[in-house]
Amino acid sequence: MPEVYGNGIALTEKILDFLWGRQTVTLNNIANNDTPGFKSQYMTFEDELDRRLSAANGSTTMKGGRMNDAISNTRASLHTTWNESSRLDGNNVDMDQEQVELVRTVYEYQFMVSSISNDINRLRSAAKSF
């Protein structure tokens, strides 16, 4: 598909995978709200993806291939919050923060699904004209 639509669909697919992972981590934090000693986790991927795409964009040789490699080689990072804890049982899950993160991730996921759906519909529409 990259030949037809560039790297847009591959990038959207990768972001959807990351958002799914972030949602899973957030739901795990919420599920462990009452587990003594549990430390919350969070997932990041935006900075590494931005860094890799910027580096690939700056390269003059095989730009399309480098972008595709940058997208496929980006990995999410899972972090554990060790120091923050305001509860006596050592658990540091902040339910308000987790719920906000969950809603934000759901909205981002819905936006990306809508985006890829629109891209595919445009391709379908263009293909019908031939």
TrEMBL record:
Compartmental location: Bacterial flagellum basal body
Key words of the record: Bacterial flagellum, Cell projection, Cilium, Flagellum
GO aspect biological process, one term: bacterial-type flagellum-dependent swarming motility
Keyword Transcription: no
Chief localisation class: other
Record keyword Lyase present: no
Any one GO cellular component localisation term in the record: bacterial-type flagellum basal body, rod
Function recorded in the entry: Structural component of flagellum, the bacterial motility apparatus. Part of the rod structure of flagellar basal body.
Annotated family: Belongs to the flagella basal body rod proteins family.
Quaternary data: The basal body constitutes a major portion of the flagellar organelle and consists of a number of rings mounted on a central rod.
Protein name: Flagellar basal body rod protein FlgB
Organism annotation: Clostridium porci
Gene that encodes the chain: flgB
